[in-house]
Amino acid sequence: MRAAFRIDGVALGSVTVQNRRRLPAPRARAASTKSSSRTAMARLRAKRANTVQAPKEIALTTLVRLGPRAAAMAMASISRGKAMKISVMRMRMLPVGSLFNRYPRMVRDLCQKLAKDVELSLRGTETALDKQVIEQLADPLQHIIRNAIDHGIETPEYRLKKGKPAKGSLSIAASQEGNFVIISISDDGKGLDRDQIVKKALSSGIITPEALREMNEEQIWNLIFVPGISTAGSVSDISGRGVGLDVVKKNIEKIGGAVIVRSSKDRGTTFLLRIPLTLAIIKGLTVKVGKQAMVIPISAVYETFRIDDTEVSRVEGYEIISRRQETLPLIRLGSIFRGTGAPENPDRFFAVRVRLGELDACLGVDGLLGQQEVVIKPLSDYLMDQPGFAGATILGDGSIALILDLPAVLEKSRGFIHKRQQLLERTALGLDQQGHPVFH
Questions:
Q1: pLDDT tens-digit readout, 341-355
Q2: 125 and 73 housed in the same domain
Q3: CATH code at 219?
Q4: CATH number of the structural domain spanning residue 367
Q5: What is the C-alpha radius of gyration for the chain, rounded to an integer number of angstroms?
Q6: Domain membership flag for residue 413
Q7: For residue 150, which of 72, 81, 217, 241 sits 20 to 30 Å off, Cα-Cα?
Q8: Does the predicted model carry a pTM greater than 0.90?
């Protein structure tokens, strides 16, 4: 008799179930089982030496070998796990309306203070979001809304001269896209002042005239997130209050989100915030650093590969590797997190390439354990001051894995990325590393 198995619509294959009278004796069966287990484990270890088998593939292979009864129990366990995950997420979810409803009064008070007339519209208030994410979004949203009313939307008199309605428009909308929520804050004001942003960036030495010629509109708008760039003529108690949009971007990225800016002269500005649904459960790549397991959010993982220590170069104190004609900084997690028992300079190790905004780097780890969804637990108070970790989780074997705070870890590569950009600009201009002309 053959029994077939499926999980989530994926066929697991079939196994032969023999008649009981033909089964071998218990001792022979036990010996055969032990031998098969040792062979399977040996093959699995050999395969993991160069590649990583995903947990789902291992689960499917294991279920086929277990037999119909054990497979049915395993599938029931998986179903219970999924149901528990859904119930955990539901308990933590709140409609974003609980956040949006804080702002009508603030907008009304600002309009009275600035002698402006603004109509605020809220859409998608029923969209659900993790309550911890909602708490983290309160200040960034407030900052963007204040900026829109103070710097973006004009006075009624000025709007009438421009042929616009006297009453300005400000909308806040939310919608769900997969595992993310998109929050947009749009106004119909004068838009960002491109010339002023470029002038400020050039005078501060943030960009060069040569780099400016290569930049597109999106890159120019992103300059407002650079520390020191502000379109405000003076600090006020209404918008900014001495704090730039760089803090807004940093807070959004801290929860795994991203910010996109779109602007058009005399038509207005839109900020798009792409926010993960929950901070309670994330999909991550579990890696081994010495004796310690760590989890890297899978949304930031670009690729993984194995590398020899001989392929690592050192430039001005930074370790770098070449990958597909790109030079990438290497951050060895065993070096920045002491006490993991990681070897100093292993002959071979794994590199996990991660991308987060403008930051693109490789993380050096000792092993890859596979992908899985993990429940994030907060760290103890005495660990909260240690940069680099966003939380912890308990793995299936009972061990504790630390969840990496990627913005904090990748901050160590920002210096190299800046130096690399300068070097590319000098090379394009025919200059050496000291800025002197190169004659051929």
A1: 888 878 899 999 998
A2: no
A3: 3.30.565.10
A4: 2.40.50.180
A5: 28
A6: yes
A7: 217
A8: no
